[in-house]
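Reading a protein record of the kind used here takes little practice once its layout is understood. Each number in the token line that follows is a code from a learned vocabulary of backbone shapes. One such record is shown here in full, so that the layout can be seen directly:
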Amino acid sequence: MAEQYLVKKTDKPINWTVEVPGSKSMTNRALLLAALSEGTVAVEGVLFSDDSRHFLACLTALGFALEIEEEKKKVTVTGCGGTIPVKEAKIHVGSAGTAARFLTAMLGFSDGTYTIQASEQMKRRPMAELFELLSDAGAAITFLEKEGHLPVRIRGCRYRTKEQREQEAQMGQGVRFPIDLSLDISKSTQFLSALLLIAPMIPQGLHIQITSEKTDGSYIRITRKMMEEFGVLVAFDGRNYDVQKNAVYRRASYVVEPDMSAACYFYAAAAITGGRALVKNIRRDNTQGDLKFLGVIEQMGCTVAEREAGIEVTGPCAGELSGITVDMNDFSDQALTLAAIAPFANSPVRMERIGHIRGQECDRIHAIVAELTKLGIRCKEEADAVTVYPGTPTGGVVETYEDHRVAMAFSLIGLRTDGIYIDNPGCCKKTFENYFTLLDSLTEREAQSDRAENTV
């Protein structure tokens, strides 16, 4: 793909019907659950992207047997019942936060020695709290570059029966193993998801007390639901998470939901053009937190309807949206999407409780303010919030910071503004590798329709 992508402006309301890939978050959770299961699991609806391919490559390097059928969007995994086949290996998680957090937790509770490498982007993301917990549980972690960050060498905990632990303790060789863990999830809920997902590797059971004000979240609820679907219940009383001893994953097949995060870009396009977008197979019972974005754009003036084929969004006349103040803590991946359509609202749009997105692929609050300001839009940046004021964007080059969500979200502005270029559009390979190809085909179809009407 070219180093820059020029978004084609649309001069009339869009009328799009699209199909989006499977959820990245659910794909990688399903792959891990399958690998830790007893028996073979067929995972369908798999997202194939940079992140998931890194996850698959890591599982292969760790000795898991995989049958990958990319055209069918299917991966069949032979699980090993909570053990890792290869006891010494090197893996590379790329820029995938789920792969980094989930696999680090799995290797930390293993009986092998492993090296975990990562992209320069992933090396900057927070991991220290997870490493500290794993160290307390008995894992030996050596930082190969910066302390508290990837890459690392990790020697996992070696689990023993109660009798073996007592015998070792008498010999002065007791293994420290805190069943009770304490965790702050204010920076990332992926740490909690990682520990819950690998619970079947801990035959004694697992108790996690949350010490932060935030104790739950949409991605944690996805984790718990998927674990339950694989046969393992997670008890939650509002602050404490418990998984009973001797938990075992078992499931013959699993279907990954379409990616709600990806669907939201097309719904936002309908919102700002006053048009219509239907995303196939998106349903009201979708478990992903980004479903809440539909409620936001409804409040801003859109109409949301569930059709037989999927959910359809129709934007207000002329794409004139109402301003809004919204707590986005539970669906913060859509902060960039909302920021991109905010200039077209008739009053300010304020996004609150999103401070944690500064530690994602890039400092996303800074990216919002920097790129909108460059395009002539006034913003107010705060530690935990950002306000975007109404305005008319000008053309320009959007820097994407190697962040797929910056690239996809800011392309929306180009549907209403001439001369919007997206720098490094290829970064979308992380989750939605054909996004700009699809956008091209949709906008070109609209242009052909306009030319046909003018000819008549």
